[in-house]
Amino acid sequence: MSAKPSLPPTALCGVRVLDLSRVLAGPWCTQTLADLGADVIKVERPTGDNHSGGDDTRGWGPPFLQDRNGKDTAEAAYYLGCNRNKRSITIDLARLEGQALVRRLAATCDVLVENFKVGGMARYGLDAPTLLAVQPRLVYCSITGFGQTGPYRDRAGYDYAVQGLGGLMSVTGERDESPGGGPQKVGVAVADLFTGLYAAIAIQAALRHRDATGRGQHIDMALLDTQVAMLANLGANYLVTGVAPQRAGNAHQNIVPYQVFEAADGHLILAVGNDGQFVRFCELAGRPELARDERFKRNADRVRHRELLVPQLADVLRTRSKRQWLSALEAAKVPCGAINDLAEVFADPQVQARGMAVPVPHPLTDSLRLVASPMKLSATPVQVRLAPPLLGQHTDEVLAELGLDQAERLRLRQRDIV
Fold first, then answer.
1. Residue-level pLDDT at 236
2. Mapping DSSP to helix (H, G, I), strand (E, B) and coil, where does residue 3 land?
3. pLDDT tens digit string along 183-225?
4. Which of 19, 47, 114, 384 is the most buried (most CB within 10 A)?
5. Mean pLDDT of the chain
6. What is the pLDDT of residue 50?
7. What is the predicted pLDDT for the residue at 180?
8. What is the 3-state composition of the chain as percent helix, strand, coil, each rounded to the nearest 5?
9. Closest to 205 measured CA to CA, from 213, 64, 416
């Protein structure tokens, strides 16, 4: 009998995370840690008489995962997309015995992640000051809409509202005077996702500090803070000038030409990033005189005179097909791109070569594919070890590791604690 091949080491092997979060920002954070090798224990609400159990996103469908017979399961695609590599247990936090179980679990973990409203964990005796007092090495990460301080601290925070409040929708969408103009949200919940990623970065920094000093800490992550930070160059534009940037549609606020253009048979992206690229584009387009025009020679000039330049470029780009332009622009090393739908994305040879869709064995189906992690580490590669777990799939396993025997676990089930 041949020995089972050993897997390469993972970056966060040995790190144990207690995940008390749900929906997206928290689960995205903990999935990132899990992909890097952490053992993530996802604590979910048991099914009760008056509510469905588990993370709310389990029911956020259709679409739902289909089983081997082609029938919908209770596993929504939304949930599957942000909960791989975790173990699920069910515990009723409203019960004293449930709270005691979580405290016992926390004592075995390096990290705790939660996204309850401010003060919510204190009602259960599971807040950061309480747990850090008895477990000073713990890294405790709270994710909320507005943070633990400030006048909005008690508000519930949702991605859509934060995209609006945090300025993103003021710079997303067509200009007010254009057809279809007005504020637009981004097509995915970027405030949640960016907060999850920042939280994962902060947790790893806190673990490094803990390993150096022996002291954990409380991390206070807010969707609004993250959204403001992610305004990036547009936030800097405002702070430097005092002038609020406006919506520019598919154009760039600081670079021209850097936007969507219409070709003879559809649309493409032209992303000229410097003056040399602009010269090459103008030669390719048969308009070399534009690159010699003092109004357009330098990017700053092109930004100031975009209303004169862009219509001329638009007229030229309509004269050829998307394929003709993309082939010519790529050969001339002028940045450009197609605009793909998701079927085209996952059929793209580069996306396939990079392994960005990964098959995942699942208890209910043989055909689950998920979007892969983009992190490519040479020595400690990301591994898909576990499918997104069924609700409570690992409750017995985790409680047994905690030292509860079969009789104790049965008693907890009979009392609906787990």
1. 95
2. coil
3. 999 999 999 999 999 999 999 999 999 999 999 999 999 999 9
4. 19
5. 94
6. 64
7. 79
8. 40, 15, 45
9. 213
342 backbone dihedrals φ, ψ, rounded to 5°: -70, -30
Give the Å distances, CA to CA, from 124 to 37, 95, 103, 255.
29, 9, 10, 52
Confidence band of 5 (pLDDT split at 50, 70, 90): low
Q: What are phi and psi of 104, to 5 degrees?
A: -65, -40
Q: Give dist(CA 161, CA 152) in Å, integer.
A: 13
φ/ψ of 204, rounded to 5, equals: -65, -35
For residues 226-249, average pLDDT: 94
Give every CB contact of residue 241 below 8 A, 6+ residues apart in sequence. none
Cβ-in-10-Å burial (0-12, 13-18, 19+) of 26 comes to buried
Confidence band for 51, pLDDT divided at 50, 70 and 90: low
Could you read off the pLDDT of 312-361 as tens digits, one per residue?
Answer: 999 999 999 999 999 999 999 999 999 999 999 999 999 999 999 999 99
CB 229 within 8 A of CB 236: no
Strands (E), 47-123: 64-66, 72-76, 86-90, 111-114
d(CA 275, CA 260): 19
Q: What is the pLDDT of residue 2?
A: 44
What are the helix (H) ranges across 265-305?
275-284, 288-292, 299-304
- Is 275 designated active site? no
Domains of the chain: 16-229+353-414 (3.40.50.10540), 258-339 (3.30.1540.10)
Neighbour count for residue 328 (Cβ, 10 Å): 15
Given the residues 92, 159, 192, 225, the one annotated as active site:
192
Residue among 261, 313, 308 nearest 287 (CA): 313
Structure tokens at 300: 């700053």
The mean per-residue pLDDT over the stretch 161-165 comes to 95
Residue 362: CB atoms within 10 A of its CB come to 22
- Quote the crossing angle between the two packed helices 25-35 and 190-213, to the nearest 10°: 50
Check residues 6 and 290 and name the one with the higher pLDDT: 290
Among 389, 398, 401, which Cα is nearest to 86's?
389
Q: Is the peptide bond before 63 cis (omega within 30 degrees of 0)?
A: yes
